[in-house]
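ARCHIVE CARD
SHELF: 3
SLOT: left
DATA:
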Amino acid sequence: MGTGQLATLIMQGFDGPIYPIHPTEKTVLGLEAYAHIEDVGEVPDMVVMVLPTGIVPGLLDDCGKVGIKARWSPRAASARWVAKASRWSAS
């Protein structure tokens, strides 16, 4: 699902920086991929999480640590990580 959304973003002509995060791949659709958000080297404006909901809470923490203010997950939100995201946003 995430690769399809990334492909659509590229095909639509998005011209801003894109930093795919993938734990094992070095490239995704021809773009350099990073194992962790901390590896990017700059603070992205936004993160789009196309992930299983069970791993989202930890990644929200990682995003907060590097200073990312905006995040979006197109998957249905579970009450558990929505509550976590609300606490993170308040700090």
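SLOT: right
DATA:
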Amino acid sequence: MKLVFLKKSSEKLPNNLKNIYESEGQFYQEQKNRLRKEQDQIHDRISKMYDDRYDGKIDEAFFQKKLKEYKDREFTILQEMESHAKGRRKFPCHSEYGLKFGSAL
């Protein structure tokens, strides 16, 4: 009885792993898009601040303070992107082992 359960489970494993892989890929793409959008927004704000600084609308101290805030957030975004990319590269390797394991049962 236990062996039958394992066999049935192993037959479903490739499809389950494929679904998980596709879901993980969709999540990765959504996060990448969200982070890119935020990064673009930061670049736009920095550009506007340069114009405002040049036009004398903001002083140097305020400009430097906001520039540091934006650059710090951009650095965090780049770290998040790299973290997602590393996780995405590792996932196919893990699913390949699962497929080999499932077909061996």
